[in-house]
Predict the 3D structure of the following.
Amino acid sequence: MRNKILTKNANPISILIVFFLMFTLFFRIGSAFSQPHAVPIAFASDISGNWEIYLTDSLGKPPVNLTLNPAADYYPMWSPDGTEIAFFSQRDENHEIYVMHADGTHQRRLTYHPATDKAPSWSPDGKRLAFISNRKGHFDIYILVLEGGIVKNLTANSFEDEIPSWSPDGNSLVFHSKRQLNWDIYTINITTRKEQRLTHQPLMDTYPTWSPDGKHIVYSSMRQDVDQADFDLYLMDAADGGNKKPLTDTPIDEAVAAWSQDGSMIAFQSEQDGRWVIHLMNADGSERRELIDNGAWAAQPKWQRSSTMLSIEPSPLQYQQWGKLKAQ
């Protein structure tokens, strides 16, 4: 009864103002929820004339140079909490594994060996790094225990084992290997060292990485005749390599895919004018778009992985550096 009296006695203009304010509020709330979340993405580029690690985000924020080193730096890999980035670098005359804070500060060396150490991959618990090294004359997979710096050899094969990627449960690694005289995808259990071959086609299958839910593996596969060969991105079941299906089907190469933390999107490098640029797409291959084309090479994209999605603001010096690079 009281509500009826208030409505009856209310000024019509006041009612319109109230409805307008309510509509505006609901519209703003809805817009906030519909806006895509900007997730940091690290990648490697030679735009400065030297390979460095850069930081952008999924909405295309202007990249900034994190490493700022005259030697070549490659293959960024985020720590599970999103606070650090591992990479490999030639700054000490040969390739070694390094790590830095997510803003590019506190860069430090983790491996010390005259052989080549590269392609780091952080374990889900943040306590170990898988990487590859040719310490025995060919590339095998090694595990670096960060506390204490202990290095353990995981694979011992006369052919090349490369580009390890951890399963979400931390029990296994997926990698590509030339052990059957052809590049194929394998998994290995960290504890038992039991291996499983997931691909068996005559051309190359490379650069595998696990989906965040552990159910799938995305990888780059060459399926066409040799004179028309190019790499497309494929998806398969992680358990046994079943249900293989293409995510891309283009006459250009696509490789080095990386999942977003929620599994909804994939970043990858795509060939353009004889160089690599970075693209994004939905996990089912739809709504593909260009993220980075800086006129140089841009490759090896990696999403930040963190439950809190830390805000990362590089220093003013790094913004200034990017401005100089764009002007060159």
Q: What stands out?
A: The domain at 36-327 is CATH 2.120.10.30 (Neuraminidase).
